[in-house]
Amino acid sequence: MKTTAACGLAAMALACASPVAHAQTGNIQIFGILDQAAEIASHVNAGNGTSATQYRLGLGSVPSRLGFRGSEDLGGGLKAIFTLEGGINLDTGTSGQGSRMWGRQAMVGLQGDWGQVTLGRLYMMRYFAMFDGDFFGAGSQGTGTIDAGIPNARADNAISYRYNPGGAGFSGGVNYSFGRDTVSANNPAAAGCAGESTIAKQCSEYSAMLRYEGSGWAVAASYDKMYGGISTTYGGLTNPDLTDSRAVINGYVKFGKDSKLGWGWLARNNEGSATTPKSNLVWISGETHLSEPVVLTGMLAQIKYKDSANKASVLALRANYWFSKRTTVYVSEQYVANKGTLAVAASTNSSGTGPLPGDSQNALQIGIGHSF
């Protein structure tokens, strides 16, 4: 009986261990970025028509995040993939996307030589299209200060297809959301447009991208459109017949081994704005390795609203010293000159207060970043 019992227990152990052993054909990675900067901002709107200087700690050159990604080889070139990624506010230890645990990405899908199909909370195609010409990315300075939709190009309830073979040649993708934003916080990252209702267009979103990479250059184009929802939807898109669309074309050219020049144009038609729905954002950016550890990045940008005096011009400069491929310290500076009634801020850091309408603002940062 003891022998029989022992054999039975061994068989049960093997049976329980079998799925675990099978799971070892996959892999899981923990990844992240921790970036924090001390900042001083001038000409902050202090109310009652007065300005003041503000000192703060917050987001620097890259949004901080923590994530998990993995894959399992299913055979025949097919893989199951997943990503869970959430933003982090290092200065307070809170979520970078409010009530969302995995506000940057939360997706599962299949991948093969034909591309990948994913479902969940996903990046819109404009996010990938902007990489080529915008060297400041989604940090607290750069084009995201001019158009808040640039660092918030994500959609809930989405399904996406991407073809990205890597290297030279064509790549691209499409994305569709049945309800682009389930969280309501009255800002671009939480617009309160849950969708998935009996009204087909309500709170839906779609985007598409096409990119070509040559030898030392690349160009990418994208188009996306977001449909409105109910009366409380952020941004004035208070019914499904109102839309907010953006068309982007940008690219870069390399010079030598360590320098490149980027450019871009973003045309927006925001029907949620009754007075200035159409705008054009243009920029030119450059990056060069001054020496092996020192990288200089600069950008000139301007947004102009059609049939309006509203205009904002931006100059951004950053110097990075790279101790290694993962750790850097930097100094970053952005100056914004507003015209008309615009009050574009020189930084998106909380409280993110811009200047008085039509006034200028300057933000200086000193920060450190580490990736893992």
TrEMBL record:
User: What does the UniProt entry say about where the protein is found?
Assistant: Cell outer membrane
Instruction: Cite the entry's keywords alphabetically.
Output: Cell outer membrane, Ion transport, Membrane, Porin, Signal, Transmembrane, Transmembrane beta strand, Transport
Does the keyword section mention Transferase? no
List the SUPFAM superfamilies.
Porins (SSF56935)
**PROSITE patterns registered for this protein in UniProt:** PROKAR_LIPOPROTEIN
Q: Which residues form the signal peptide?
A: 1-23
Q: Which domain of life is it from?
A: Bacteria
Q: Which Gene3D superfamilies match?
A: Porin
Q: What is this protein called?
A: Porin
What broad taxonomic lineage does this protein's source fall under? Bacteria, Pseudomonadati, Pseudomonadota, Betaproteobacteria, Burkholderiales
